[in-house]
Amino acid sequence: MESHHFRQVIKEHPRMGATQLVMGRPGIDGPQESVATISPLLLNTARVNHERKKVFTKSRGKDIIAAFTEFQRQHPDFVIFHTFEPVAVVITQSPIMLSFLVKNHSNGIISDAAHGFWAERNDLLIISSVFSDALQCWVPGVMTWSNGGTEAHYRHHFRALFETMTREYERQNVILTDDLFANVIDFSQAERAGFINAYVEFWMAREDNTRPPEELAEAAGSLLKGCRQHFHAQVTRIKKISGVVPPALTEVFADRVLQLLECQDLATFKSISASLIRDYPKAEGWLNWWMADGRAEMLFTPFRRMPDNLWYNLEDTTNAEEAMHWRIYCGLGKFHGFVAGLRALRAFSEYWQLQSAGNSCMRTFLYVLFNH
């Protein structure tokens, strides 16, 4: 009975430390009772810490497959795809999230991975988001638990994104065009390759496809725009390395590198990059990395393959997605176990359902108010 009572306290206050638990859990009307009322042994904070860790260990040691199966039973339409071999991903999407994805996302899709949402250090939360005109903010379209960040992990995520969007577009009799799937991403080679390979797989599996794999890969590459903020951050990092850039020339170096973003023709781009390599030879490897084919077309105008009208409609950075990560951390916390994290994602999707419903009610109220 005592151990059950203590476990219940920890479940209700999982982030509370031993000292607070012993002195009295904070409440609206002042401190609640101390855990020492459960047992005199719990007057010792070291003992409380020990017992607290046992609760977490027991919780995480439960049969994960059984817990996951139970989660799916409780929420049968939330997990849209999962696999545990050879890589592990669980991809989630609610009906409201799908509706966001296909409802006028003129700003395109932003995709990014968050570290720290899951307790396992290498696990990622991959989210693809769109801007909602109705809510006037960015909203999630697909959320994925991933046990790594390889090409295969991202390929599963993007394949699910393409498949669910397509089913809904076809239900609405919308003609599929490449630009519907345009994404803003960072410069991860795995993410880029995952997107391209997923796009090829997606179209090759369709009966109406007329393009060979090589043409599909070219089309997919032209649908990716890189995050300018990531480039700016890397310029700031490299300019501070005194072995590469003399301290007296840091700002001069940064200004000259950022000119590459403004170049409109290849000749000017090559002239500026060549002069940078001449004046800062130790930065050559870094500059060549950014000027490689796959990355250059996502960032620099002379290499761009994306149509201009699509390019300027998309965001310049993944900042909106990173802001969503912060929103998730503030509202749902960090370092979740596997199934606990899925429950948190389910709660996040329900939050957007409530936001959408509240927005609809407000529009109805204002319509009645101003039309009667």
Describe the model.
This protein has 372 residues and is an alpha/beta fold. 53% of the residues lie in helices and 11% in strands. The protein starts with a helix and ends with a helix.
Strand order of the largest sheet: 1-2-5-4-3-6-7
Annotation field: number of helices: 16
- Approximate shape: globular
The overall strand count is 7
Which terms summarize this structure?
single chain, 7-stranded mixed β-sheet, 7 strands, globular
List the helices and strands and how they pair.
Elements lengths: L1 H11 L5 H6 L21 H16 L3 H11 L4 E5 L5 E4 L2 H7 L7 E7 L8 E9 L4 E10 L4 H21 L11 E3 L3 H16 L8 H9 L2 E3 L1 H12 L10 H9 L7 H14 L4 H7 L2 H4 L11 H6 L5 H14 L5 H33 L2
Parallel strand pairs: 3-6, 6-7
Antiparallel strand pairs: 1-2, 2-5, 3-4, 4-5
Helix pairs in contact: 4-16, 6-7, 7-8, 9-10
Compose a concise summary of this entry.
By secondary structure, the chain is α/β, with parallel strands linked by helices.
